[in-house]
């Protein structure tokens, strides 16, 4: 499978994941190049740690994507990530710069021209630098150019208005589908009642 390897679309060879520092060195050069690749099975534990750091716990509060006020427990674990990496049509797309891995996103290819996006994270101390926007663009290139999909969907907690607005600015729209939050020890236990997931989707012309 060909994957977009950098902000300019050149593929990179896989390598061992190396997490970036908790916060960027100062100053961070504007427009620093990011490289993208799919995670390897041996990297499942590090990817899971990155995802959990952005969604749960004290470190997550450094960024604006935290769910720590809404959910207790972890977001995922190495067993779940490893099982997903091993499947056909699945890519945990990693964003790396010269300091290491700064973000990741789970992409899953469907059989009907649709792909699913999930576990979209940027390391908390690196948020607010435009990395999320660039990682999203790389993910969209992969599902369109490598997988031939014409739409990409995701779910977001309905109370996350700032995250919904982020996706709306990038062309995602609500499908009107709302689902109860699937509470579980692996994926999170609600701290507040009535949590729901809103499905959003972006389509491209055929």
Q: What would you say about this model in short?
A:
The protein is α+β, with helices and mostly antiparallel strands and 206 residues long. The chain has helices spanning 44-55, 57-60, 78-85, 131-146, 161-169; strands spanning 35-38, 71-72, 90-97, 100-109, 114-122, 151-157, 173-180, 189-190, 196-203. The two termini are 21 Å apart.
Brief descriptors of the model:
206 residues; alpha+beta; Aminopeptidase; seven-stranded mixed β-sheet; two-stranded antiparallel ribbon; 5 helices
Description:
It contains five helices and nine strands. The two termini are 21 Å apart. About 6% of the residues have low confidence. A seven-stranded mixed sheet has the order 1-3-4-5-6-9-7, with helices on both faces. With 206 residues, the protein is of the alpha+beta class. Helix 1 crosses helix 3. It is globular and about 40 Å long. The chain has a single domain, classed as Aminopeptidase (3-Layer(aba) Sandwich).
The main β sheet shows up as:
7 strands, mixed
Structural class: alpha+beta
Number of domains: 1
Q: What is the rounded distance between the termini?
A: 21 Å
Shape label? globular
Question: Helix content range of the residues, please?
Answer: 10-25%
CATH class: Alpha Beta
Radius of gyration, taken over Cα atoms and rounded to an integer in Å = 16 Å
The proportion of residues in beta strands is: 25-35%
Instruction: Tally the beta strands.
Output: 9
Q: Count every helix, treating DSSP H or I runs of 4 or more residues as helices.
A: 5
| Assigned CATH architecture | 3-Layer(aba) Sandwich
CATH topology: Aminopeptidase
Which homologous superfamily in CATH is the superfamily? Gcn5-related N-acetyltransferase (GNAT)
Mean pLDDT reading: 81
Major sheet: arrangement of strands? 1-3-4-5-6-9-7
Order of helices and strands: EHHEHEEEHEHEEE
Poorly predicted spans: 10-16, 25-30
């Amino acid at each position: 499978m060909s994957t977009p390897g950098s902000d300019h679309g050149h593929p990179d060879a896989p390598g061992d994941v190396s997490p970036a520092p908790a916060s960027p060195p100062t100053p961070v050069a504007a427009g620093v190049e990011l490289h993208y690749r799919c995670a390897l099975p041996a990297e499942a534990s590090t990817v899971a740690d990155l995802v959990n750091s952005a969604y749960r716990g004290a470190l997550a509060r450094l960024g604006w994507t935290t769910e720590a006020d809404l959910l207790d427990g972890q977001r995922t674990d190495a067993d779940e990530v490893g099982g997903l990496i091993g499947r056909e049509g699945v890519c945990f797309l990693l964003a790396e710069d010269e300091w290491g891995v700064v973000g990741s996103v789970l992409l899953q290819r469907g059989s009907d021209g649709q792909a699913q996006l999930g576990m979209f994270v940027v390391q908390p101390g690196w948020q607010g630098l435009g990395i999320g926007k660039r990682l999203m663009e790389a993910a969209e290139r992969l599902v369109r150019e490598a997988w031939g999909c014409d739409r990409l969907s995701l779910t977001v907690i309905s109370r996350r208005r700032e995250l919904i607005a982020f996706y709306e600015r990038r062309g995602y729209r609500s499908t009107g589908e709302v689902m109860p939050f699937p509470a579980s020890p692996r994926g999170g236990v609600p701290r507040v009642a009535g949590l729901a997931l809103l499905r959003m989707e972006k389509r491209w012309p055929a």
